[in-house]
Amino acid sequence: MPISAQALRHEYLRHNKKFPHVWCPGCGNGIVMGALLRAISRLELSKDEVVLASGIGCSGRMPTYLDFNTLHTTHGRALTFATGVKLANPALNVITIMGDGDATAIGGNHFIHAARRNLNLTAIIINNSIYGMTGGQYSPTTPFGSKSTTSVYGHIEHDFSIAELAVTAGASFVARSTVYHADLLDRLIEQAIGKRGFAVVEVISNCHIQYGRRNKLGGAVDMLRSFKEKAVTIQKASTLTPEELEGKITIGVLADRDLPISTEEYKKVREKARAARRQK
């Protein structure tokens, strides 16, 4: 049964930790955090059953605020720590929260191979097209031609799609939403946590300070409105031409499939090895 925002805050926030938060006013990270809490509440998970791991960046501060088992790890390594936790105790619900640079630049190989292995955990990736906390450098998702502190005359590299990369790499569940579509984001995170296998939710978010300001995209409200205007559901996208989809953001579930779970396959290997040893 859904509970009120006040009850969510009382239940899940560490009230004596680092408040007020460090995020800029209007940042989408707060919307993502609220969606995560509502999803966990609807799934009726005990706080002791949840592990939240993050890397470095604006999103990396989220475990500081939330009263779960939490890990604030090194840059790009949230998934490696999460893998260790899941191998040690497969019964835990392990969730990682990462930014686009954290997950797909220095953490890119970890992300690809976590999807390939189909680890039974959830990866939430907040994609704001920039390195927000560390100074506004371009990331793997910074659009071609955009300005950043490391591309002051326009970015010359092409961005890639995090969600489509996850599908190709072999994740069981892949979805995308924006911080404007908060209700959809709630449902997608709930589906991802409940999915057996590696589940990825890419969240298109706004960094109106480091990215929006440099690229004349307006403030937080302006950027959220642009997400509303650009968003197209997966179902609608299937009826459009590539030209019509240019500049659009497809939202919804991109992949939902059942594949062997890495931790379960690893357990089978251990049992075979023990059986072979007993026979000697």
TrEMBL record:
| Cleavable signal peptide | none
Q: Which GO terms describe its molecular function?
A: oxidoreductase activity, acting on the aldehyde or oxo group of donors, iron-sulfur protein as acceptor; thiamine pyrophosphate binding
- Sorted UniProt keywords: Oxidoreductase
| Ranges of residues in domain Thiamine pyrophosphate enzyme TPP-binding | 56-203
Which top-rank group of organisms is this from? Bacteria
Gene3D superfamilies per record = 3.40.50.970
For this protein, the record's CDD domains field holds:
TPP_OGFOR
* Keyword tRNA-binding tagged: no
- Per the UniProt record, one Pfam family is TPP_enzyme_C
- Any single biological process term in GO: cellular respiration
Q: What is this protein called?
A: 2-oxoglutarate ferredoxin oxidoreductase subunit beta
Protein species of origin? Desulfolithobacter dissulfuricans
Q: Taxonomy-wise, where does this protein's organism fall, top ranks first? A: Bacteria, Pseudomonadati, Thermodesulfobacteriota, Desulfobulbia, Desulfobulbales
